Amino acid sequence: MNEQTERRRAISDIPGIVVRCIVFFVFIFLTAAFQSSFFGAAGFFGSVPDLVLCAVLAVAISDGEKSGAICGIAGGVLTGAMGGGGTAFLPLFYCLIGYFAGYIASRTIRKNLISWTVYIVPAAFLRMCYGALYMAVAGDQAHFGRILSSMLLPEFVLTVVFSYLIYFVSFIVMLPLRSGRDRRGKTENE
Prior knowledge:
Blueprint: H1 3-12, H2 14-42, H3 51-63, H4 65-81, H5 90-107, H6 113-138, H7 144-189
Helix pairs in contact: 2-3, 2-4, 2-7, 3-4, 3-5, 3-7, 4-5, 6-7
C-alpha cells in the first residue's frame, strides 16, 4: 500500500475512533458512578468491589492495549474524583493493568468467559496489593490481619464476583462496535 492510501484509510477511520472513544468513556463513567454511588452506599461486607478495574479490563481485552491504557487513566481519574481511595497512583495503576491486559489479549489468550477469569483474578489480586501498599504508606495503624480480613479480601472476592456482571454488560455495549469494525474489515478486504 502506498502512503496516500494509508492516509485515506486513517482519515476514514476517524468517525469510528471517535464513536469508540465516546462509548468507552461513557461505559467507564457509568461504571465509576455505579461503583461510588450504589456500592459505596451498600457496602457489602464492609467493602466496595472495584468495578472500574473490571471495566478497564473489558475495554482492554476487547479493543487492545492502547484503548485499555487510555481508559485506565480515565477510570483512575474518575474513581478519584468520585471518592475512591488512593487517587495519586490509581490512574497509573489502571493504565498499566489496561495496557498489559490488552497486550496479552491481542497476542495470546482468546476472549471468552474462561479467559476473563484468567484476567480478573490477577488484576484483582494486584488491586488488593495496591490497597495494602496504599494503607501502609498512608500510615494506617490498624493490624494488617484485620485490614486483610475486613477490607482487602472482601474487596478481592466482590471484585471477582461482580466482574462477571461487568463482563456481560461490556459484551452487550461493545457488540455494535465489533460488528461495525468487522463490516469495515470485510469491505476493505473485498
